[in-house]
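lol ok so funny story. i was supposed to be doing the assay writeup but got distracted and ended up predicting the structure for this chain instead. priorities right. anyway since i did it might as well share w the group, maybe its usefull for someone
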Amino acid sequence: MKLLELRDKLRTGQQLLVLAESCTCGLVASELGQIPGISAVFCGSMVVYRNDSKCRWLGIDSELLESPSVGPVSETVTVQLARSVLQRTPEATLAGAVTGHLGPDSPVAMDGVVYFAVVKTDVPGGPIAIARRIHLSSPAPRNAEDSSRRVARQREAAERMLDFLNEFVS
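and the output, tada:
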């Protein structure tokens, strides 16, 4: 239902959405792609899973990505991902981005932390960026072979990203 609601809001607002996905690895786009006719409001998604891809494809500053105080899973980088993918997709009016630490082997303080960002161009005064940090409720993978918990976390992150987009699309 939330997918249809998002599609309808995008249609009504005459908005075109583009995404930059990291930890969800294209799952948000995959969910949207299940809706017939979604191409009328969805431009696509750039999956930038690794730092080098974030840097080369979307121009994210490598110093930010490597910085211990910022890093790839941060509000700053997530907003930059959304701004950059929007800039590279001239027909889009709205961009969303998602980054996160899904585990295993995440830094303890960041395990299960996900950031979302939306950049909107159709607002008075110019583009605005909105970001949110959440903590996933799904349990962390026990080890590198625990794909079921990893997938559960990706699905939760994608679902919560869709909720976030629904909240800010007008």
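The CA atoms of residues 120 and 128 lie 5 Å apart. Residues 147-168 form the longest helix (22 residues).
back to the writeup now i swear
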